[in-house]
Amino acid sequence: MRVIPIGPEQFSGFVEKYKIFDMTRQLMKRYLTNWYHDDAEAFAENMRADLPAVLERYHFYNEFVSITNNYNFDPPMETVSCTIRITDEEDGCCSRYTAVFDSQLNAADDYMKG
Question: Positive or negative, the Cα torsion across 11, 22, 47, 98?
Answer without folding.
Answer: negative
